[in-house]
Write a structure and sequence with these properties.
By secondary structure, this protein is an alpha+beta fold. It is 37% helix and 22% strand. It contains three helices and five strands. α1 runs parallel beside α3. It is globular, with a radius of gyration of 13 Å. The structure holds zinc ion.
């Protein structure tokens, strides 16, 4: 795996951690304002998702929520396009392994 792929994987893991805190602070609301989980540290996009959708994504270590177009096509594929966000799945192999090792739900 390239240094770039590893960096993207670790950045996404950081944003996922941030969003876990957002969710815990937002109990009882019907839309979570989360940060884009793409691999760019400079990205400041906010996404609005329902708690149910967030939970469905977080149930899988390899899935991340990103802004439309914020897909690193060499390490992940879009599995769902929605209004205002896209859900990506890390490719099998090391990209997925990083996602699993850093999964805060494990
Ligand atoms: Zn982004």
């Amino acid at each position: 795996m390239s240094e770039r792929e590893r960096r993207i994987g670790l950045n996404e893991a950081v944003f996922r951690e941030v969003n876990e805190h957002v969710e815990s602070l937002s109990q009882g609301t019907d839309a979570l304002s989360i940060v884009c989980e793409c691999g760019e540290l400079s990205c400041t996009e906010r996404l609005f998702v329902s708690p149910a959708k967030y939970e469905a994504v977080r149930a899988h270590a390899a899935l991340f929520l990103v802004a439309p177009g914020h897909v690193a096509a060499d390490v992940e594929d879009v599995v769902e396009r929605s209004d205002g966000f896209e859900i990506v799945r890390k490719h099998e192999g090391e990209a997925q392994q990083i996602a699993e090792e850093t999964d805060p739900r494990r």
